[in-house]
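[09:14] KT: can someone run the structure on this one? pasting the chain below
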Amino acid sequence: MPNYYLSTYTPLIHNRFGRQACQDHGHPPFVDASCRREPDLESPFPSISALCRAQMFAPRLHEGDQVIYMTKKGSAAKGMRHLVAALEVLHRFNTHKEAQAWYLERGLPLPGNCLVRGNLPLSVDHTDRFTQDVRRWDLGYQARVRAHGTFLVCRALALELHKPRAITDDQLKSIFGRDDVPGTRTPPSIPKSNFDALLSLFNRSG
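[09:31] RB: done, structure tokens below
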């Protein structure tokens, strides 16, 4: 039986540097903000790795599991969160090299969070400039990959990187029945009914 998760992340437009990157390079505003997009939502088959959360998330996922990605509160609009992507895990690989082979066999470009030789990080002007030293930034990711090589190839159940639906605290409370919202640094599994309620919002206006 699959498990269902709600995870949060920081979109590129959360600060002025990220907004400038969108303007200068045409990036969708709701991609991840780092030099290694995590998750990488722009690939034809979006991907999740352990770059950001190490052992706390990606290694817990298996084929068939589903994840909704929501922005952190206030990161794109004051007091608001946005529902950006719903992903289903298609393939779980133990190493990034195994994932690389899967993408290359299909003639697909490698996602930015696939850390293999020749797949370089983005330069700092494509990021939120969390740090100016991309080499040092990337070395931290490389260390995490050596310790936790899990790589998950997904399909998008729903995805909106330009104008995702905003969701209020009251709406989340009506779904989860509580004031605090799952989707912390260690995303817990959530009931399928909660997941389906969130997924249904992707196709609604307003």
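[09:33] KT: thanks! The mean pLDDT is 94.
[09:34] RB: yep, looked fine to me
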